[in-house]
Specification:
heterodimer; A: mainly alpha; B: alpha/beta; Amidase signature (AS) enzymes; eleven-stranded mixed sheet; two-stranded antiparallel sheet; 38% helix; glutaminyl-tRNA synthase (glutamine-hydrolyzing) activity (chain B); ligase (chain B); EC 6.3.5.7 (chain B); ATP binding (chain B); Glutamyl-tRNA(Gln) amidotransferase subunit A (chain B)
């Protein structure tokens, strides 16, 4: 499998990372190098092997469905790059 | 010199009133002021808070209280959120991020009386093996090749922590290890470092990279010091859903424990193309040290070792692409304005992330994307099961494994930079245990012909860090590793 320039741009778009047209060729080379290398896993016989999820050292546990934190809007907003009162600001998304 | 003391000796001296915590912290702050402009091991120095903490430690000592780390000055990897202190993950994205909360691990260290000197440099978002991916400049390894001033990398991603401890501008430091980020820099800088079992230390408040692999751990100049620190760092935390609720043993008590009858496996697959013969020789030396200490040496096979790295470079980027989706330029972190919301996301992330972080997000996005998920991600999870099975099988017949930590000594700044995969190969011996969630300890064991430190790695059963500390202290004692780096507090070549 080899990524073409359009796929590189599509992946960058999915990841919401802006890339310049001048970067595409370099990224294409690097990503193809890495993808080509990880394709060695195709040689492993995984027939009947269950996928490992997490590291299986412990099962996820249930917790009580109660509020344990909150009501600290100033702390939550303290690193906001743009705010208006107790709200984050974003560019207008509804016309 | 006070900066040369181990944590264990520092605690004895403080409790015996030979010196005060303020004196101990001041000695380290002075050394940081002298060496950090060159080493760049600290991104932020918190001198005032450190002196306040040291004063409080002295007051506690005067009251007769003996906190487990009372008055011990430490460096904190800048991936741990520290309340009111800038936490950058060495990224432009978080250049001005000031957490309103304290990570669980650092809160526990403070609870036990530790003094924080500052935040240490790292590869951006802990992605790298050389510390050259930091947005705030590389770290200089305090070691140099004999008769050669070339600047060497400290390894990574916990490179600032490793360099600070080796240069004696911290008595110990926290690190995090996703694929080798504690063990490889420990090996490159001639110090000890342990990646505990996944779930042993809470990840809460640690900037996330690959959540099924990330694990905090201690880095220090002796195995016993790592054991002392781990006791404070480990423990159950309800705020980390993968934290494991088991008692925390007195790890330091395991150091020096008898090794009679302990079975140590030597995995035949832990050899890399082009690995220097000195590393093979050191490994053989380690085997004979452990045999002399009473261990039984057993040849074992971990047949899927060769697939560890490729599996890692699917699983870790996949998790990173998901975890780093949170950096959107809206709630915190860098923001670059644009007329549309998507434009703001794209511009903020383009400006905020460095080249390696972008590469890994893109790889992760690709392997998780529609049509490729089964071929890459699902297959990698299955191979991960096979890697885990290899270890589980091995631990039926042996108590631990001995391997080299890294396939080379520290390399020069600029080497291994032309090809990302060449850099990835640094972690060939550390990644498999990360994939399996098993603990691993790197111990400084010798020097190569250029006078650079080399580490040996001990891997163990889940939650059996004590056996690693016992084996590690035996290697440490046999190796009698005393050589100092060329740049240390009070002694600059």
């Amino acid at each position: 499998m080899s990524l073409d320039a359009a796929t590189v741009k599509h992946i960058a778009r999915l990841a919401r990372i802006g890339i310049q047209d001048t970067e595409v060729a370099r990224l294409q080379g690097e990503l193809n190098g890495i993808i080509g290398w990880i394709e060695q896993l195709a040689a492993v016989d995984v027939e009947g092997v269950p996928p490992m999820v997490g590291t299986e050292q412990a099962a996820l546990r249930m917790r009580d469905d109660v509020v344990t934190d909150g009501a600290r809007p100033e702390a939550v907003l303290s690193n906001a790059p743009g705010r208006n009162g107790l709200f984050y600001t974003v560019p207008k998304v509804v016309e | 010199m006070l900066t040369d003391l181990s944590i264990a000796d520092g605690l004895r001296g403080l409790r015996g009133k030979e010196f005060s915590a303020v004196e101990l912290t001041t000695a380290h702050l002075d050394a940081i002021a002298a060496l950090n402009p060159r080493l760049n091991a600290y991104l932020t120095v918190t001198a005032e808070a450190a002196l306040r903490g040291a004063g409080a430690a002295d007051a506690a000592l005067a009251r007769g209280e003996q906190a487990p780390l009372g008055g011990i000055p430490l460096g904190i990897k800048d991936l741990f959120c520290t309340e009111g202190v800038r936490t950058t993950a060495a990224s432009r994205m978080l250049e001005n991020f000031v957490p309103p909360y304290e990570s669980t691990v650092t809160r526990q260290l403070l609870r036990d009386g530790a003094v924080f000197l500052g935040k240490t440099n790292l590869d951006e978002f802990a992605m790298g093996s050389s510390n050259t991916n930091s947005a705030f400049g590389p770290v200089e390894n305090p070691w140099h090749r004999t008769g050669d001033d070339a600047v060497l990398v400290p390894g990574g991603s916990s490179g600032g922590s490793a360099a600070a401890v080796a240069a004696r501008i911290a008595m110990g430091a926290t690190g995090t290890d996703t694929g080798g980020s504690i063990r490889q820099p420990a090996s490159f800088c001639g110090i000890a470092g342990i990646k505990p079992t996944y779930g042993r230390c809470s990840r809460w408040g640690v900037v996330a990279f690959a959540s099924s692999l990330d694990q905090p751990g201690p880095m220090a100049r002796t195995v016993e010091d790592c054991a002392i620190m781990l006791r404070s760092m480990a423990g159950y935390d309800a705020r980390d859903s993968t934290s494991v609720d088991r008692p925390v043993p007195d790890y330091a008590a395991a150091c020096g424990r008898s090794l009679k009858g302990v079975r140590v496996g030597i995995p035949r697959e832990y050899r890399a193309d082009g690995m220097p013969s000195e590393i093979e020789a050191l490994w053989q030396q380690g085997i004979s040290w452990l045999r002399d200490a009473g261990c039984e040496i057993v040849d074992v096979s971990l047949p899927h070792t060769q697939y560890g790295l490729a599996t890692y470079y699917i699983v870790a980027p996949a998790e990173c692409s998901s975890n780093l989706a949170r950096y959107d330029g809206i709630r915190y972190g860098r923001r670059v304005e644009a007329p549309t919301l998507d434009g703001l996301y794209e511009a903020s992330r383009e400006a905020g992330f460095g080249a390696e972080v972008k590469r890994r997000i893109l790889i992760g996005t690709y392997v998780l994307s529609s049509g490729y998920y089964d071929a890459y991600y699902l297959r990698a999870q299955k191979v991960r099961s096979l890697i885990l099975r290899d270890f589980t099988e091995a631990y039926r017949t042996v108590d631990a494994l001995l391997t080299p930590t890294a396939p080379s000594a520290a390399f020069a700044l600029g080497e291994n930079m032309d090809d990302p995969i060449k850099m990835y190969l640094n972690d060939i011996f550390t990644v498999p245990a990360s994939m399996a969630g098993m603990p691993g300890l790197s111990v400084p064991a010798g020097l190569d012909h250029q006078g650079l430190p080399l580490g040996l790695q001990l891997l163990g059963r889940p939650f059996d860090e004590e056996t690693l500390f016992a084996l590690g202290s035996a290697i440490e004692q046999a190796a009698d590793f005393r050589r100092l780096p060329s740049v240390t507090a009070g002694r600059v070549r």
